[in-house]
Amino acid sequence: MSTAKTEAAAMQSNYHLDSQAECFEFCKNDGSAFFFPSPASGGFGCARGVASIPNDDSPLQPVSCDTYTWFGLTHSAGAIANGLAKRNLRERLSQLRLDSQKRCLRHLKACKVDASDSYECIDTTSELESCGGCINAEYGVSASGNATIGINCAELDGVALGAATCYNSACEAYACKAGYELVSGDCVLIA
After folding, report:
1. What's the whole-model pTM score?
2. Which of 13, 49, 124, 182 lies at 20 to 30 Å from 133 by C-alpha?
3. Does an H or E element contain 74, and which?
4. Which stretches make up the Protein CPL1-like domain (predicted)?
């Protein structure tokens, strides 16, 4: 980071904002952000773009911290590209999740159908074979996403055939196979 006094005319635009953080957010995709305390507005003047900061190894000259003295913060092109790539990935994943939610009614999830490129809308709070989440993953969400994987309640160990249900996103058994006993909705092996 570097600090320098510069002229507002050398920058692309000039805005008055309430905080330095708003200025940094405004300039997040640029290589630099410039601001000055503005007693007149009670906030900060903010500008982005190219300014007269030396790009060689010459040391910056100290400046006074007077009213309307511009302060510039810059980062390398690599840091900008890395930050932009991460931000774009977060936005893309967020958009995929939103798109997935739009495919079905509000309370339903778009769940993949086996290995195909199709989906079905499922209520994972009560679906026996996708209880609590999509059994084959959520449609349009990458495997590294944080979607909840569902459980097939019909295939739980010790549960009698047809004796399980999905209620409020959790499997509950109401009868067990021989050698198991029912304990709080789960079939537990008898020792």
Report:
1. 0.46
2. 182
3. strand 71-74
4. 119-183
